[in-house]
């Protein structure tokens, strides 16, 4: 069996206008195969990765679960400080398969919140949890761990059909949230926004500090919906959800776009955290396919989103940085106010295709976007770290980072991992100075990047590794590219 391991990078700049310099790089992995969709999160100077593993010899530190639990795949969680030193590592799973979706957060008090999808009947549920048994072919789960390896709570969430967990979140009042998609009936609570499931609905659920269910609701119309990412507003009163919809009804509630633009549109919904009712909801899309992948809240609870589109209408505002689609499919970035009205929207892409996978964060009043591109133009701007497009040997695309101001101007853009057979597909804020980008890569050309202080200095032989880059915020060119 192929081996797959995790590879970590921390990078910062020597000076304001110079390229980034690599200050830390490490492998992380065992003798088996690690999964291909890692998740990363950061808070208060620490960062954590959630992945899946087939390895029986992953290193653990203060673990809740020391060993792989016998199924094909278990979750694996690893926490690091801002210098790349591991502070916590554990397996988490049952005797079945833990699917590589879900999400991870580090709470303000240092707890580690994870959620995912499983077919294990024996994950470690706790007393007082909402659901202590596996109900269908796959169920969701939600768990809270301390860095000393103590399980605070763990609960199943799901019905007798398929349930798919995509993200987790917490608020400052000690509550926790789980979101994704489901076709299971009887998951919604009385008084929820939507109490009956359609063909395949998005869902959002709120839990207390012991894993007890407070409320749960379906969301969607006559067709398919999914919530991919969620984030609680800074005041804790609202929770934003983004994803996709195939429905022509049941979506818009006092939102910016009243009607469906095409068979597939982006979906943006704001719920009241008190009772799960909808404050507002909107389509986002034009005459072709559109998808919203990620979101981030500003300090004043405005909402920045990123997605991918092939549409020529309903995406960009007239005075935006890029008002027209440049390639077959471009990324887009938009900012909404807390009442669901768009302030601005812009395309972001070159003359070729930007792939339908992107992340977004807010860092020091900058919007930072990560994506994949085939475009050799309109990406690297300002004083980029890597200015030239060099297609990777696996599929020809190239990872990139872009920074926009909160009024939609482009600050800078850079390719990264040029020529490497892999790329990045995740972002997280680590501290006020650093942000992380996580992805995958094959081993060619990587050994020389490993630093002397690496957590794990030797490579295990897989043809696909995870990568995690840490950049210092504002360390790329701050030259502003005007609209």
Mean pLDDT: 88
Q: Provide the helix percentage.
A: under 10%
> If helices are DSSP runs of H or I spanning 4 or more residues, what is the number of helices?
0
In the predicted model, the low-confidence regions spanning at least 5 consecutive residues are 1-21, 475-483
Main beta sheet: strand number and arrangement? 5 strands, mixed
Task: Write down the Rg.
Answer: 21 Å
Shape: globular
Could you give the order of strands across the largest sheet? Answer: 2-1-29-28-27
List keywords for this structure.
single chain, 5-stranded mixed sheet, 46% strand, 483 residues, mainly beta, disordered C terminus, 4-stranded antiparallel sheet
Describe the structure.
The chain is about 0% helix and about 45% strand. It is mainly beta and about 475 residues long. β15 (about 225-230) and β16 form a beta hairpin. The radius of gyration is 21 Å and the shape is globular.
Task: Provide a short characterization of the protein structure.
The chain is mainly beta. The protein is built from no helices and 29 strands.
């Amino acid at each position: 069996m192929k081996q797959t391991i995790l590879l970590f990078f921390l990078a910062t700049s020597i000076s304001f206008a110079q390229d980034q310099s690599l200050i830390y790089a490490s492998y992380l992995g065992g003798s088996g195969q690690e999964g291909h969709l890692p998740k990363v999160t950061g808070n208060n100077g620490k960062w954590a990765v959630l992945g899946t593993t087939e390895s029986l010899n992953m290193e653990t530190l203060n673990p809740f679960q020391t060993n792989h639990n016998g199924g094909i795949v278990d979750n694996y969680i690893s926490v690091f400080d801002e210098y790349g030193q591991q502070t916590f590592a554990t397996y988490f799973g049952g005797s079945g398969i833990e699917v590589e979706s879900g999400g991870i957060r580090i709470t303000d008090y240092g707890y580690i919140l994870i959620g995912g999808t499983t077919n294990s009947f024996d994950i470690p549920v706790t007393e007082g949890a909402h659901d202590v048994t596996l109900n269908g072919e796959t169920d969701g789960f939600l768990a809270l761990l301390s860095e000393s390896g103590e399980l605070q709570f763990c609960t199943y969430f799901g019905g007798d059909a398929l349930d798919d967990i995509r993200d987790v979140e917490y608020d400052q009042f000690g509550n926790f949230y789980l979101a994704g998609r489901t076709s299971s009936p009887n998951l919604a609570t009385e008084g929820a926004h939507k109490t009956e499931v359609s063909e395949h609905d998005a869902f959002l659920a709120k839990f207390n500090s012991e894993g007890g269910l407070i409320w749960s609701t379906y969301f969607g119309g006559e067709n398919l919906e999914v919530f991919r990412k969620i984030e609680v507003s800074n005041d804790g009163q609202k929770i934003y959800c983004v994803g996709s919809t195939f429905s022509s009804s049941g979506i818009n509630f006092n939102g910016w776009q009243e009607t469906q633009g095409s068979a597939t549109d982006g979906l943006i919904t704001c719920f009241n955290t008190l009772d799960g009712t909808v404050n507002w909801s909107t389509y986002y899309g034009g005459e072709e396919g559109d998808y919203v992948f990620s979101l981030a809240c500003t300090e004043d609870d405005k909402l920045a989103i990123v997605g991918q589109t092939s549409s020529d209408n309903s995406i960009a505002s007239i005075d935006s940085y890029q008002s027209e689609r440049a390639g077959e499919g471009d990324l887009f970035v938009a900012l909404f106010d807390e009442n669901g009205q768009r302030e601005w929207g812009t395309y972001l892409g070159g003359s070729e295709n930007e792939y339908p996978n992107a992340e977004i964060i807010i860092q020091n009043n900058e919007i930072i976007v990560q994506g994949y591109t085939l475009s050799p133009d309109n990406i690297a701007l300002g004083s980029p770290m890597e200015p030239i497009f060099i297609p990777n040997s696996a599929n020809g695309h190239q990872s990139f980072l872009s920074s926009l101001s909160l009024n939609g101007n482009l600050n800078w853009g850079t390719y990264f991992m040029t020529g490497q057979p892999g790329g990045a597909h995740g972002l997280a804020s680590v501290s006020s100075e650093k942000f992380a980008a996580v992805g995958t890569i094959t081993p060619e050309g990587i050994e020389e990047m490993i630093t002397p202080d690496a957590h794990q200095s030797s490579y295990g032989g897989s043809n696909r590794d995870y990568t995690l880059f840490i950049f210092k915020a504002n360390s790329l060119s701050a030259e502003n590219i005007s609209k």
